[in-house]
Amino acid sequence: MPADKRIPVTDETRTALDVLKAPEQTYDDLLRELATQRRRQDLKQRFRELEDADREALTPLDE
Question: What is the b/e burial string over 34-53, where b = at least 16 CB atoms within 10 angstroms of the residue's CB?
Answer without folding.
Answer: eeeeeeeeeeeeeeeeeeee
